[in-house]
Amino acid sequence: MPERLFYELDITKRALIFDAGLKEFSQHPYDTASTNSIIKFAGISKGSLFKYFKNKEDLYFFILDSVIADLVTETTKDMSNLKGNLFEVVIGYAAIEFNWHISNPEKYQLLKRAFIDDHSAIFKKTINRYEASAESLYDSLLSDHLTKEPSSQKNTKIIKWVVEGFNQEFNPIIDSFDDVGMLKDAYLEELINYLNIVKNGIAD
Q1: CATH number at residue 190
Q2: In the 3-class helix/strand/coil scheme, how is the chain assigned residue by residue?
Q3: N or C: which end of the chain has fewer CB within 10 A?
Q4: 18-55 pLDDT, tens per residue?
């Protein structure tokens, strides 16, 4: 979390530091992202930056926290409009999230870097930091279809396992798409294929 001095800055200065950090961390892996570039873009000294944040990692997670909070806030607004069965809701939310990515390309680039496994120490910390909140968001998404019946809970778990497994398989090829719109179309098409297999049953 930022130090108290950061919040004593005027909102324009805070936004400039945030934008500088977002720009650098979205364009470069964490290990090679440069605090020198950040302070140059923000127009502050390195000494000032580390009065506002304990270290580079503290700054990184402040920016990532802010981006994820924005994603959750904006997509949650549209979640209440999702209608249909369990499968349709999952697909609908995926489309909503991709629409946010398309509208926020720099934030999307940061999230893409943050959640694609690069075997780094910061990736492991990132997963540990956000795993519980991601689970909570997904449970909220499926809450209208979840009852106390064991069969309902098992159905929800199966859908979650399928989506998680599909994401792990799909994530490594994300960088092969230059256009997020094309990525959205490919992702949704393949996700629908997998969910249809679950919905209709696996044929012999």
Answers
A1: 1.10.357.10
A2: CCCHHHHHCCHHHHHHHHHHHHHHHHHCCHHHCCHHHHHHHHCCCHHHHHHHCCCHHHHHHHHHHHHHHHHHHHHHHHHCCCCCCHHHHHHHHHHHHHHHHHHCHHHHHHHHHHHCCCCCHHHHHHHHHHHHHHHHHHHHHCHHHCCCCHHHHHHHHHHHHHHHHHHHHHHHHHHHCCCHHHHHHHHHHHHHHHHHHHHHCCCC
A3: C
A4: 999 999 999 999 999 999 999 999 999 989 999 999 99
